[in-house]
Specification:
The complex is a heterodimer of chains A (232) and B (247). Helices cover 69% and strands 0% of the residues of chain A. Chain A is mostly helical. Chain A has a single domain (16-97, 116-227), classed as Fumarate reductase/succinate dehydrogenase, transmembrane subunit (3 helical TM bundles of succinate and fumarate reductases, Up-down Bundle), CATH 1.20.1300. The radius of gyration of chain A is 21 Å and the shape is globular. Chain B has 247 residues and is of the alpha+beta class. Chain B folds into two domains: 3-111, Ubiquitin-like (UB roll) (Roll); 117-132 and 143-245, Alpha-helical ferredoxin (Fumarate Reductase Iron-sulfur Protein, Chain B, domain 2, Orthogonal Bundle). Chain B contains eight helices and seven strands, in the order ββαβββββααααααα. In chain B, the strands form two sheets. In chain B, strands 2-1-5-3-4 form a five-stranded mixed sheet. Chains A and B meet through helix 1, helix 3 and helix 7 of A and helix 6 and helix 8 of B. Chain B: Keywords: Iron, Iron-sulfur, Metal-binding. Chain B: It comes from Winogradskya humida. Chain B: Residues 150-179 form the 4Fe-4S ferredoxin-type domain. Chain B: Its cofactor is [3Fe-4S] cluster; [2Fe-2S] cluster.
Chain lengths: 232, 247
């Protein structure tokens, strides 16, 4: 294709599709992180020593080239930018969408898109609130009953103790919200990045479903293992 | 059959408008939805009231002029059917049917059920054309087109621009319409010279008109009287990405 000559600034970069591509790319990056994070979490089943050692290792990635903790902070910065980009694009698009229909229908049956598709925006808000809580809980330890740096295994075990059932409940709901968000989000990202064949659509939908379910099961296995005493 | 219709009545663009209920009696189940509205309008005229304004032209499902939200579904309950081709036998005796105009900021109501779809014309003007010398049509066989491309281009070209996709979209997006036009021209050899500028220009016109963005819900394709597939939006996205990168 011939290159489009710019009239003003590079044209088209603020179109709704550009914002969608930003959401797709940042979303996929965040899903990649979620998978790595989940695999790390599953190390809890190998015992306290392995798990705490793994957690400590995370701080040493890149050493001696990078000083201790630097890799972690670089990753945190990248993830924060991804989250901000994702949410900013979502807010701009959501506002454009609500402006595009100023008068609502008086009779409107439920939209036929899947439950996951219909709950993308509010589901995203729940996920954001969860991320904030989760960082205060298990990264900084502020809201954790044990909350000692380095005692990762003990912190997790204390977090999901049966007496703190409400934490487990909130965690479960949030992870399920992530699952729904990804079920539509992953497929939608594929479409936004140009997936266009009917057969590919079936594959993309199936892959999105499988990746979402695996993620939910992987994350929920930890609190429920604590709850039934497999991890304590 | 006897039915009740609740119709959106709005005297003009600046009028507030409201739903008004009318009884329509003795309608044949074989009447089309528009014929039912014709009967309603005859009754309204006889009783000295203003008839309900609605768009219509060919009444055989090919022009794209008609279209209204019927019980909250664009073009009513039948799949791949325009309002003019919808028959009253798909409703039950005694039903109350809600009829509303397309709702979207770029489609302002002119009167009752008639909306101004000029925003679609502006999207077409921005890039929905090819540059070709006019005059005698060239020999068709001189420009071979692969069969799958021709079929997909034709499928996209069946879009009649009725606006149902926008009306149904929870985001008030015209992405399916724009995608259909971009695919229909972009698949053809004749459409290649403007392929990259077309997608950018049409998207810019679409955003400028105030349409929302696509969230891949699929409402549009569900109500589309021509069954334009949602996959074309993926094609639009791919074309857009290549155009911006100047691939």
């Amino acid at each position: 294709m011939p290159k489009v000559q710019g009239k003003r600034r590079p044209r088209g970069v603020r179109s709704s599709i550009a914002l969608k591509i930003l959401m797709a790319v940042t979303g996929l990056l965040l899903v990649g992180f979620l998978y790595v994070h989940m695999i790390g979490n599953l190390k809890i089943f190998f015992g306290a020593e392995t798990f705490d050692h793994y957690a400590h290792w995370l701080r040493t990635i890149g050493t001696p080239l990078l000083p201790q903790d630097w890799y972690l902070w670089i990753q945190r910065a990248v993830l924060t930018f991804a989250v901000i980009g994702h949410i900013t694009a979502a807010v701009i698009l959501a506002r454009r969408a609500s402006k595009a229909r100023p008068v609502k229908y008086s009779h409107r049956p439920k939209v036929q898109g899947s439950y996951a598709a219909r709950t993308m925006r509010w589901g995203g808000v729940i996920v954001l609130l969860f991320i904030i809580y989760h960082i205060l809980d298990l990264t900084t330890g502020t809201l954790n009953p044990n909350g000692k740096p380095g005692e990762v295994y003990a912190n997790v075990a204390a977090d999901f103790a049966p007496s703190r059932w409400y934490v487990t409940l909130f965690y479960t709901l949030s992870i399920v919200a992530v699952g729904f968000h990804l079920r539509h989000g992953l497929w939608s990202a594929a479409r936004t990045l140009g997936q266009q064949r009917p057969h590919g659509e079936k594959i993309a939908r199936a892959v999105a479903l499988v990746l979402s379910v695996v993620l939910v099961v992987g994350y929920l296995s930890v609190p429920f293992a604590v709850l039934i005493g497999l991890v304590d | 059959m006897d039915i009740q219709v609740r119709v959106w009545r709005q005297a003009g663009p600046s009028d507030k408008g409201k739903m008004v209920t009318y009884d329509v009696k003795d309608i044949s189940p074989d009447a089309s939805f528009l014929e039912m509205l014709d009967v309603l309008n005859e009754n309204l005229i006889l009783s000295g009231d203003e008839p309900v304004a609605f768009d219509h032209d060919c009444r055989e499902g090919i022009c794209g002029a008609c279209g209204m939200m019927i019980n909250g579904v664009a073009h009513g309950p039948e799949k791949a059917t325009t309002t003019c081709q919808l028959h009253m036998r798909h409703f039950n005796d005694g039903d109350t049917i809600d009829v509303e105009p397309w709702r979207a900021a770029p489609f302002p109501v002119i009167k009752d059920l008639v909306v101004n779809r000029g925003a679609f014309d502006r999207i077409i003007q921005a890039g929905g054309y090819i540059t070709a010398p006019t005059g005698t049509a060239p020999e068709a066989h001189s420009t071979p087109v692969p069969k799958p491309d021709a079929d997909l281009a034709f499928e996209a070209a069946t879009c009649i621009g009725c606006g149902a996709c926008v009306a149904a979209c929870p985001n008030g997006s015209s992405m399916l319409f724009t995608a259909a036009k971009v695919a229909h021209l972009g698949l053809m050899p004749q459409g290649q010279p403007e392929r990259a500028t077309r997608v950018i220009d049409m998207l810019e016109a679409q955003d400028d008109a105030g349409f929302g963005g696509c969230t891949n819900m699929g409402e549009c394709t569900t109500v589309c009287p021509k069954g334009i597939p949602l996959t074309l939006i993926g094609r639009l996205n791919a074309d857009y990405r290549k155009s911006v990168r100047g691939n």
